[in-house]
Amino acid sequence: MRRTAVCLSSLAVVSGKVYFSETFGSGWEDRWTASEWKKSDGTAGKWVASAGKWFTNEAEDTGVQTGEDSRFFGLAAGFDSFSNAGKDLIIQHQAKY
């Protein structure tokens, strides 16, 4: 009983606001801007949406991957301005090899 109370009380302490989240579902190309750096000399790579070779649920596991070897890549997305003054800022991403 005491352990349950401690676990439940920690839920209130561990909370935060998500300022940006992306699942790379339908229309991700419209939300992200690919870099045009190195495009003029033909060495810019292309991004593709893929769940990779191993996945449990293709729709949920889809992300972006580099579509060509030995190229230069850049990708950016905008989000609303915010301030984390006096708070920790945690940036998390996931990579699958």
User: How much helicity do the residues have?
Assistant: 10-25%
The stretches of 5 or more residues where confidence is low (pLDDT under 50) are none
What form results from the Cα inertia axes?
globular
Beta strands, count: 4
Structure classification: alpha+beta
Tally of separate helices: 3
User: How does the major sheet shape up?
Assistant: 2 strands, antiparallel
Radius of gyration: 19 Å
Mean pLDDT: 83
H-E order: HHEEHEE
- Give the oligomer, counting copies of the same chain as homo and different chains as hetero: single chain
Strand order in the largest sheet: 1-4
Estimate what percentage of residues fall within beta strands. Answer: 5-15%
Write the layout of secondary structure elements.
Blueprint: H1 2-13, H2 28-31, E1 32-34, E2 47-50, H3 58-61, E3 63-66, E4 75-77
Antiparallel strand pairs: 1-4, 2-3
List keywords for this structure.
two-stranded antiparallel ribbon, single chain, globular, 97 residues, alpha+beta, 4 strands, two-stranded antiparallel sheet
